[in-house]
């Protein structure tokens, strides 16, 4: 009997560990703090970028770096790991830019899993599964490929109160993953 209770307690403890929020903070850094390999790649691949800014993103599992800029009237975010290896390229888009069937599948998922919701941001994501050249080419040409993912930031209500979630869908609108977002951490007063 003691062993059954002990196993039950351990099982419940493991489940609460799996349900924890992933703590993530993003803050702006200087160009010299950005990984040199990533900076060299940006210098080679990104031409005519405006408002280029560098960020460091720290969460409970990893550290990554992002370069955010505007090019050809679109906002881009290029993410690298600590060594400066390309992870993905994201483009901020509007709901009208998502194919109709995909958007309907996303809306269906959101309406069945939340009492109410509001989509705050949509990003089209090109992961670095292909070669670096192909990933940049596909992203800068804004191609609709079967490998594209859609990352949504959603304010949603489950039982009580609104929370912010980051939800990932594939090109068909099939749910891939969800995680609860934390509000931004400001070191200054906002007015």
UniProtKB/TrEMBL annotation:
Record keywords: Signal
Gene3D superfamilies assigned: 3.40.1420.30
Key word Signal present: yes
Signal peptide from the UniProt entry: 1-19
UniProt name for this protein: PepSY domain-containing protein
Species, as recorded: Cellulophaga baltica 18
